Amino acid sequence: MVDLILVLILLLSLAAVAWPFLFYPLILRALPAKTEQPLPGTAPTASLLFCAYNEAAAMPEKLANLAMLKARHPGLEIWAFDDGSSDDTAALIEGPGDLVTLIRGPGRSGKAHGMKQLAARACGDVLIFTDANVLLDADAVDNLLARYADPEIGGVLGSLHYVGEDESATASVGSLYWRMEERLKDEESRTGNVLGADGSIFSIRRSLYPDFPDSVLDDLTVSMAVIFAGRRLVKAKDVIARERLVAARGDEYRRKVRIAARAWHTHSHLRPQLRRMKALDRFKYASRKIIRWFGGLFILTGGVAAAALAWRISPLLFGAALLAAVLLAGIAFRARGGLLAALADILIAYAATLQGVMKAMRGRTVTIWNPAKSR
Fold it and tell me: Where do the Glycosyltransferase 2-like domain residues begin and end (predicted)?
């Protein structure tokens, strides 16, 4: 009986880890598509918003990209919030004259606070959110605004393409993970709503912008407001943003802990509204968010069950398996490329996410951020 329970725990743990990447996508593909119904009319006006902290290295390329977008869209309003940078970020943003309207924060107050300041001042019908180190393709704004011809659409996400995936095992794993994430969003969009946006490139109708505390993940909070308002949150494959991957494990670990902690605070803040969502959207949210946040716990539970099974079969088998696992882990965490290095980075990512969630459950969060040095 004990062996059967251990086998069931192991199988359920494996299924939970695989659910967001295997079973959930298969279910989405079996669902019918929800078509868009655009109406004729003039394109909405737009405001592009981003926050920056110590991004002087990224600013020249970012400002050139913004100048290109402004040339294509003279009416595009561009706002930036400087979160108390200690380098030349603010001066560089102000350098091109009237290209970007800069708001200087009083110090380190965080991205959520900064974005609220910008959204309160923006005048565009559509608010476009992006990051200081993200570059948009030339036709990104055109393609994004075109989707708002359907009055049911309240928010549009873009597609993030990473640059530098060959620079390290961490970057390679990050790129693979993100490609899987993008395909999941494509399927969610096809079947109704995408369940949340990241900060690289997304937009909403300004009238839907919500109020929220500074402690939450503003990308998730703002994008979910579209669904709560009864509108559609969709993804546009032809709205392309580009960002350089984080190459160092330490940078990526800290980033994932920070994001996971704020994501759990956001989940707690949004829980009453999440419960009122349609059944399909609740299923999507649980599959792509909650199950993934606890992936590290499922891996740990499965590992303990597997170890207990090995011990019950033979203490010698248990010892051999434990020794092999320790040796492989040592090799994997020292490797800088190949399959074992990739496996190590996957486990690190799960551990960082679980640590962030556990931190948030204890009432701790992270409101400020620092750019990754290995980008």
Answer: 47-209
d(CA 155, CA 54): 29
Domains and CATH numbers, the chain: 1-375 (3.90.550.10)
- Mind giving me the DSSP string for 156-185? EEEEEEEE-TTS-HHHHHHHHHHHHHHHHH
Per residue in 300-317, pLDDT (tens digit) is 999 899 888 888 888 888
pTM of the model: 0.89
| Residue 99 phi, psi dihedral angles, 5° rounding | -65, -45
Using CA atoms, how far residue 111 sits from 7, 43, 197, 217, 224, in Å, is: 45, 29, 15, 9, 17
Amino acid at the residue 294 = F
Full strand arrangement of the beta sheet holding 101-104: 101-104, 77-82, 46-52, 126-130, 201-205, 153-163, 232-244, 135-136
Measuring CA to CA, which residue among 350, 169, 328 is closest to residue 253?
350
Do 243 and 162 contact (CB within 8 A), yes or no?
yes
pLDDT at 148: 97
> What is the percent of the chain where pLDDT is above 70?
89
